[in-house]
Amino acid sequence: MNREDKVVEKLKKIGVVIFQAISLVAVVLFISVVSNRMWGGKPEKIELPAELTLRMEMPLSEVAAVNGLSRKVVQKAFSLGSDEVHGKTLGDLGINIANAEVSLRKAQALSEQHGSKNWIKIFSKFALWLVFLLVVFYLVLRKKVTPKLRKGMLASSLLIFGVLLGSEPNPMGTIKDTITLLGISGVIFPPRAIALSVFLLSVILANKFICSWGCHLGGFQDLLHRLNRGKRDRRGIIPQIKPPFWLSNGIRIATFAAMTGGAFLWAFDLLEPIDPFRVFKPTHLSIIGGAAVLLVLAASLVVYRPWCSFFCPFGLVGWLGEKISVFKIKIDYGNCPKCNACVKVCPSNAMDAILYRDKVIPDCYTCGACMDICPTDAITFGVGQRDRPTNEWLEMPMGKVRFKEEIKEAVSTLNGVSPMNSAKKIEKIVA
Question: How far is CA 48 from CA 109, 110, 172, 189, 266, in A?
């Protein structure tokens, strides 16, 4: 094949990737519109409290009527019985205007939050998350995740938790909306706090598993990224890049700080206008929001999980939580041939840092690609702290072709590793 033919073939492959990506996005948007109409419900958006009209001599029933509040909200705001709401005034209760306004705003905020939720959908989603993540956990633990299966599982996560069950709840929303609601209204919505605790617990138990496999936006980005890879899920057809972790995490920290400051200082939800989870609520997308979503999805072809890496507040908190994860990716340096195949197949910078035990370990999403490619089964997903490389291993020369025969001979003697299967993996490395 001459040079011109290679260029044409390359362009064809790029065209196929772009067509597949556009088709996937179009299908997600279309089915999401249909799904949202079926579920209905209010948009889960934290609104600024309206100005209240209050006078000390106003009966509480009038307070409710004038300000468009339900009597139930007024009742909860002042811890009253239902009958007391009718005739009591603020003066009777000995509550000044400022304190009354704060209490009413908090009660109204909690009422709006509760009223915007579809509890059947939420409980269904968490039940399915539990089943789905347990299945994936078993597959990863048993090293059963192949490139084909990985795409299938990511597509399933996208379909179930995003397209069919909607954008909320989601890991990012639990922390973003918790901080925003606290900053704007001064309250914490208990169900959201419980959901956040569950998500953080999953991070601590299994190395950011909720982000890896359960987050519908994360799965969407991941799937797009892998559409832009060959059959072996290794090299990008359109050249892919791995931004340095100090840059991506630095921007993520700055975004988290700006989001928190905006909520507490200016009562403003910084991420709401550009929330990419709105891709699963297309009818609620603004022009700015739509542009942000398309930018994130397009960037996903060349950068692994750009929203997760650069902006997601839960991604930042999850990255901190993963440091104490019970289950994590580990290296058996006694069996590691130092071929660096795991580093090359890893879509992020995580495997390089894990392998060489850098002081700062980037986000590891436990996608299983490193375990699938390892020719000696030296990489596992297990319990406990990661080992440190020995001096002998660090001093060992690195290279894949040079060690081809040596690896073949070595793996044939390893317990539980057949020479045939090992040779197949080696061929992936030296191809």
Answer: 9, 13, 20, 16, 11
At 120, which helix (H) or strand (E)?
helix 119-141
Give the SS3 label for residue 66: helix
Judge contact between 116 and 42, C-beta under 8 A. yes
Residue 409, pLDDT > 80, answer no
Is the pLDDT at 45 greater than 70, yes or no?
Answer: no
In degrees and rounded to multiples of 5, residue 198 shows phi and psi of -65, -45
Q: How far apart are CA 92 and CA 237, in angstroms?
A: 73
CA distance 221 to 268: 27
Share of the chain above pLDDT 90, in %: 62
197: part of which helix (H) or strand (E)? helix 190-206
Handedness of CA 351, 357, 361, 364 (dihedral sign): positive
Place of tokens 């700055």: 254
Contacts of 47 (CB under 8 A, 6+ apart): 112
pLDDT digits (tens, 9 = 90+) for 255-289: 999 999 999 999 889 999 999 999 999 988 999 99
Separation of alpha carbons 276 and 310, rounded Å: 13
Upper half-sphere CA count for residue 389 (Cβ side, 13 Å): 17
For residue 304, give the nearest of 339, 272, 372, 350 by alpha carbon: 350
Domain locations in the chain as residue ranges = 3-42+119-319, 60-115, 327-430
One-letter-per-residue 3-state SS of 131-176:
HHHHHHHHHHHCCCCCHHHHHHHHHHHHHHHHHHCCCCCCHHHHHH
In sequence order, what are the beta bridge partners of 381?
Answer: 329
Contacts of residue 27, defined as CB under 8 A and 6 or more positions apart, other chains included, come to none
Cα–Cα distance measured from residue 409 to residue 175, given in angstroms and rounded to the nearest whole number: 51
Q: Are strands 327-331 and 379-383 parallel, antiparallel or unpaired?
A: antiparallel
3-state secondary structure of 380: strand
Q: Is the pLDDT of residue 3 over 90?
A: no
pLDDT single digits (tens) 67-102 = 888 888 888 888 887 766 667 788 888 888 888 888
10 Å Cβ neighbour count for 162?
24
Distances (CA, A) of 191 to 69, 146, 279: 22, 37, 24
* Cβ contact 226:151 at 8 Å: yes
At 318, the amino acid letter reads: G
**pLDDT computed for residue 115 by the predictor:** 83
